[in-house]
Amino acid sequence: MRWIDQFIYMGDDASYNAEDLLKTSSPYLHGRAFSSGARWHCHTGWFDPETYAGREVLNQLNLDAGLVNVDGKMSTAVTVTHTQILRVTQQPDELAAFMPHRGDGLGTLSGLMDALHDGNKRILGDLLTDSMCERISLRSRQTA
Predict the structure, then answer these.
(1) Three-state secondary-structure class, residue 137
(2) Distance CA 122, CA 68 (A)
(3) Interstrand relation of 73-87 and 40-48 (parallel, antiparallel or unpaired)
(4) Least CB-packed of 31, 87, 88, 143 within 10 Å?
(5) Structure confidence by residue, pLDDT tens digits, 94-137
(6) φ and ψ at residue 128, rounded to 5 degrees
(7) Domain count, the chain
């Protein structure tokens, strides 16, 4: 699964402050993201065995602050691209549980998608400031 969230900064670049959007304490960001002005990027990855019990999930998190075209005007945006990849070990019949013709395959696949989506929301919650989480209703979706 891949999620792309983009946050458009509506002010001038001289007033840009990454701390308005992102937590300085986030484990997913290098400190340079907060001292490099409106142009930076931070790419990281890790394996998370807790996202989906019994399966290894690779997380790739790419954050970029740069220019984007918004209605013909160049504006600064922070783009968060989060990819989660279920790793398989190539064991015989390993993916059989996900097949629709095998028992509850669609339910298993739906459970996987829910787990990955919850994982994405956890990452965003650890990345974005509390005020931004409230603004995009992230907290209410996590507790619903």
Answers:
(1) coil
(2) 26
(3) unpaired
(4) 143
(5) 666 666 565 565 666 777 888 889 999 999 999 999 999 999 99
(6) -85, 150
(7) 1
User: DSSP for 42-110?
Assistant: EEEEEEETTSSTTSEEEEEEEEEEEEEEETTEEEEEEEEEEEEEEE----TTTTGGG-TTSSSHHHHHH
Q: Which domain holds residue 120?
A: 2-143
Cα separation, 55 vs 83, in Å, equals 16
Task: Please write the tens of the pLDDT for every residue from 58-91.
Answer: 999 999 999 999 999 999 999 999 999 987 775 6
Burial class of residue 105 (count of CB atoms within 10 Å of its CB; 0-12, 13-18, 19+): middle
CA 142 from chain centre, in angstroms, equals 14
Tokens (6 digits) for 82? 């989060």
Distance CA 66, CA 77 (A): 6
Q: Taking every pair of C-alpha atoms in the chain, what is the biggest distance, in angstroms?
A: 58
